[in-house]
Backbone:
């Protein structure tokens, strides 16, 4: 039966899972090496066209590192012709003047550059000369081609105490928008959670520093500070609801209602190689699975806030409880909320220097292959 | 704002017709404003060259019999506050 859902507004094209970085907080699936071949240029072009016909207006090029694809220029130009408002979400690695000139010419609207600790040594990335030079070069190119300077910095326990320096750097690069996005715990970040989750004290300090900085720079720089879900007591309205506005396309052509949904068991996500986007969005069982509130269990089903947060995030519910139809345990009405408070308590102890022995998984092919072999569809918490 | 003010779309905003929505929209990073019919008709004429007086005159030609000056100036003021458009410098 065809859904009455509104059209997707936002398409996210994860063009590739290849990436020169190995970030321990990457939100890509941990078993990405087990996936099939990347969509070819003409397959992407067809899917983008179908997306526009459905009514999507926003298009994100993401990954992995989307600059790894040497057909990005073609896709950018096609997106503009189709009438998308397009955004390149990149680490900047691989960006040079030739490419940014082609993006501008092709009609790319927006670039969001993420800065991260990409060093295996996990030492202070702000003092790393090599990456700092890269950042400067990218910032210069972005300005030169009249893009707004949008910086995204992923925060976690190991860098959150540097938030002041990060903001100074952003100011020096004349950033107009800075998103200080605390890691959310999915994918690789979930594997590494006990190492990455900051303590309450760290968060409060970082917010304080951010607020002082905001006062100083005024309107010159718009700064967003995103708190990790684990420090909330109500869940986020994840994706504004399942199959509501957001359509994620993976490198190998699966259509998902969010970046993470692929790990959910018992759902067969449709491939754009086999179906058109209209059927996928309106008719596929996977996209209809958690629409509306029929699927909800208690305490969500009778909760007055269910129309506000849709029970939170299905993937977080699954990762933590093993059942994607339960309330997101971030909610303090969830009987599983202790899973969150225990993780927060472990973070507090680690922050206070109590010895923990976290194992760190770098996002790389070797680890991914190892994790794919385990093919664990069981929750890890 | 005067009769002679010239407005242009703010940087990084795009105005276009959306077939699927049957409406004019404004697109910007990670967002979209769906415009009502009159807002769409006004913004369509905000081209970085036509002064307010020309926009009013053109609309009154397209929709005869209406006195649109107040509607137009009110909407342009609203759109400026929202940051969708700005007075073209110089």
Residues:
């Amino acid at each position: 039966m065809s859904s009455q859902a509104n059209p997707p507004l936002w398409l996210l094209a994860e063009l590739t899972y290849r990436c020169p970085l190995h970030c321990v907080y990457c939100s890509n699936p941990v078993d990405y090496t087990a996936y099939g071949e990347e969509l070819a240029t003409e397959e992407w072009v067809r899917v983008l066209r179908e997306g526009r016909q459905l009514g999507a207006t926003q298009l994100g090029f993401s990954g992995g590192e989307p600059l790894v694809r040497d057909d990005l220029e073609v896709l950018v130009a096609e997106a503009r012709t189709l009438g998308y408002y397009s955004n390149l979400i990149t680490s900047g690695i691989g960006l040079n003047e030739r490419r940014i000139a082609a993006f501008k010419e092709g009609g790319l609207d927006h670039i969001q550059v993420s800065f991260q600790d990409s060093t295996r040594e996990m030492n202070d990335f702000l003092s790393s000369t090599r990456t700092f030079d890269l950042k400067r070069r990218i910032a210069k190119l972005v300005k030169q081609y009249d893009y707004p300077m949008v910086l995204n910095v992923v925060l976690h326990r190991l860098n959150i105490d540097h938030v002041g320096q990060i903001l100074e750097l952003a100011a020096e690069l004349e950033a107009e928008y800075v998103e200080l996005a605390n890691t959310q715990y999915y994918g690789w970040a979930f594997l590494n959670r006990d190492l990455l989750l900051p303590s309450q004290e760290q968060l409060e300090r970082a917010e304080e520093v951010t607020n002082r900085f905001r006062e100083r720079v005024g309107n010159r720089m718009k700064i967003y500070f995103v708190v990790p879900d684990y420090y909330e007591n109500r869940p986020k309205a994840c994706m504004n609801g399942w199959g509501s506005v957001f359509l994620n396309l993976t490198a190998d052509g699966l259509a998902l209602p969010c970046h993470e949904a692929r790990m959910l068991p018992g759902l067969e996500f449709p491939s754009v190689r086999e179906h058109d986007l209209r059927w996928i969005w309106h008719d596929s069982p996977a996209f209809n699975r958690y629409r509306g509130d029929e699927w909800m269990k208690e305490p969500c089903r009778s909760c007055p806030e269910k129309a506000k947060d849709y029970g939170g995030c299905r993937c977080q519910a699954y990762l933590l409880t093993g059942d994607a139809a339960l309330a997101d345990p971030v909610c303090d009405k969830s009987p599983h909320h202790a899973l969150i408070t225990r993780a927060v308590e472990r973070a507090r102890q680690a922050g206070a220097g109590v010895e923990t022995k976290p194992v760190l998984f770098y996002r790389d092919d070797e680890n991914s292959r190892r994790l794919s072999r385990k093919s664990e569809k069981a929750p890890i918490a | 704002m005067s009769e002679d003010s010239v407005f242009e779309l703010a940087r990084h905003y795009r105005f276009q017709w959306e077939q699927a929505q049957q409406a004019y929209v404004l697109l910007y990073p990670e967002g979209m404003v769906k415009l009502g019919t009159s807002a769409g008709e006004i913004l369509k004429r905000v081209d970085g060259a036509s002064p307010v007086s020309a926009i009013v005159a053109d609309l009154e030609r397209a929709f005869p019999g209406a006195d649109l000056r107040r509607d137009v100036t009110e909407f342009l003021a609203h759109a400026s506050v929202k940051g969708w458009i700005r007075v073209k410098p110089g």
The interface with chain A takes residues 11-12, 14, 16, 18, 20-21, 25, 27-32 of chain B (CB under 8 Å).
